[in-house]
């Protein structure tokens, strides 16, 4: 059973999401929060697997709450930022804050349910517009960002770097194992080691860093 926490300052949105998710097999809504500070407290109490996090909330906004929840904590839940503000700047800020996914609130119910399941499996969950934002980010002018990213990635072993590059292509752990002729457990071990060395929180941040190091011409 995937345990989900809903964080949104609009009670009608929380009610709608609760009704939708409770109709999905294998998903349980364990708590709700009206702001980021409440979300952080609810995570400590209920230990959800996934948090659906609004951005625009009082007291503590969703980006600050995401950073607080995910920063270098292996036990942290996977956070999917769910917002009406479908802006590329927010996509990148959410990913760098530690979010595992980004969806617009107008996403289809089945897409939100699938995003929750993907996040619970440790896979990125991005709306098409969010994916486009990441592609455009990778294609942007490199500046000093590329050199800084290369210096950080130099901390990895050759195999960890191969895993990072496969993650940046959007491959799942199973697909990475097939490409590199590694067991699933070995792929996970290399991925975990890379994230620890680079002080990153999830594979989305690893993909961003790898794209930064290899900008498109």
From TrEMBL:
Using the record's annotations, give every residue carrying the modification 4-aspartylphosphate. Answer: 54
Give one Pfam family, short name only. Response_reg
Which controlled-vocabulary keywords does the entry list? DNA-binding, Phosphoprotein, Transcription, Transcription regulation
| SMART domains in UniProt | HTH_LUXR (SM00421), REC (SM00448)
**Residue ranges of domain HTH luxR-type in the record:** 149-214
For whether the record's keyword set contains Transcription regulation, the answer is: yes
Molecular functions (GO terms): DNA binding
- This protein is called Response regulator transcription factor
Task: Record the organism.
Answer: Streptomyces malaysiensis subsp. samsunensis
């Amino acid at each position: 059973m995937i345990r989900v926490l809903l964080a949104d300052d609009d009670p009608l949105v929380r009610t709608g999401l609760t009704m939708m998710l409770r109709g999905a097999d294998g998903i349980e809504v364990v708590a709700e929060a009206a702001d980021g500070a409440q979300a952080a407290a609810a995570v400590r109490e209920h230990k959800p697997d996934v948090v659906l996090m609004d951005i625009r909330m009082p007291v503590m906004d969703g980006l600050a709450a995401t950073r607080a929840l995910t920063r270098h904590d292996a036990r942290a839940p996977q956070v999917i930022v769910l917002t009406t503000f479908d802006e590329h700047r927010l996509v990148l800020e959410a990913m760098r804050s530690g979010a595992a996914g980004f969806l617009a609130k107008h996403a289809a119910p089945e897409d939100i349910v699938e995003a929750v399941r993907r996040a619970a499996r440790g896979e990125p969950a991005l709306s098409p517009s969010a994916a486009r934002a990441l592609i455009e980010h990778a294609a942007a002018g490199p500046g000093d960002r590329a050199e800084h990213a290369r210096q950080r990635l130099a901390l990895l072993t050759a195999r960890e770097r191969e895993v990072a590059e496969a993650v940046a292509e959007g491959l799942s752990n199973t697909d990475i194992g097939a490409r590199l002729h590694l067991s699933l457990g070995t792929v996970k071990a290399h991925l975990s080691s890379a994230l620890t060395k680079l002080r990153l929180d999830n594979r989305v941040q690893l993909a961003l860093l790898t794209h930064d190091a290899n900008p498109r011409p």
